[in-house]
Amino acid sequence: MRLNYILSDLGIGLKRNLSMTIAVVVTIWVSLSLFGSALLAREQVDLMKGNWYDKIQISIFLCTKDSGGRGCSGAEVTAEQKNRIKQVIESNPDTAPEGVFGESKKEAFEQFKKLYKDSPIVSTVTEDQMQESYRVKLKDPQRYQNLVSAVSGLPGVDTVQDLRQYLDPLFNALNKLRWGALLAAGLLLVAALMQISNTIRLAAYARRREIGIMRLVGASNFYIQLPFLLEAILAALIGAVLACGTLWLGVYFLVKKQAEETFRVWQWVGATETFQATLIMVVVGLVLAIIPTFLTTRKYLKV
């Protein structure tokens, strides 16, 4: 009997506040979709960092007679200078074990011909113009500055290149976009929170006479609050389901069908990351429904 009454009261409440309920569903749908997208953006940035930073090597190019680097004196790097450079690299605490690889002029020229095999520039370059180099892999790619500072300016060193100097601006831009999406999602979640509160407040005001009668006959606070709570949870669940569906469709069409096929070099978010994001979205949606409902009904159900 009580269950029938609660379900009947729930149906009446939904009919009375249908337009407001639809507005709540749409707001939660949009806000959770953006929130889930921001979560996946964070995961994507982390995947891209892990994929590239683990492969980053510092390239130390040695002097030739035409080099103009700070450590060059218009002459080829000497054997003594090369030994000194290698010693500094290997003694650096950030250098990975067996992480130093030398590249001769011949090897550099072969690599150059592979990269530019279809370009006429190959015929204008000789092996003697190539630079010898050391490729260094670090234990922790985040600590690249220590080694760069140690070898820069050493006699025989022309230039020191690190891929991070090109990747960091990209990742910084992606991080700003991620935080921007989170901020926008947060504002929309606040809007959803306020809209749920207003919907419950209006519903409680419209049924104030019924609430008074229920209190007079001894109904508990939770029993009175339950129809309002179910109404908010139902709206939140519908919005969360729509948001989760939107997120899965977005990942399938934008990531799987386009990004992965176009940019195969990157590692992209998949089912695991999307499933985790949808779980968080559902939990957030339920919290958005439960907390404002309890707070609002406690204040407006006093008779």
UniProtKB/TrEMBL annotation:
Compartment(s) where it occurs, according to its Swiss-Prot or TrEMBL record: Cell membrane
Domain annotation FtsX extracellular: ranges: 56-160
Keywords: Cell cycle, Cell division, Cell membrane, Membrane, Transmembrane, Transmembrane helix
Positions of the ABC3 transporter permease C-terminal domain: 183-302
Domain of life of the native organism: Bacteria
TM spans (from-to): 21-41, 179-205, 226-255, 275-295
Main location, first listed in the record: membrane
Entry's family note: Belongs to the ABC-4 integral membrane protein family. FtsX subfamily.
Its job: Part of the ABC transporter FtsEX involved in cellular division.
NCBIfam families associated with the record: FtsX_actino (NF038346)
Protein name according to UniProt: Cell division protein FtsX
Source organism: Kribbella sancticallisti
Gene of this entry: ftsX
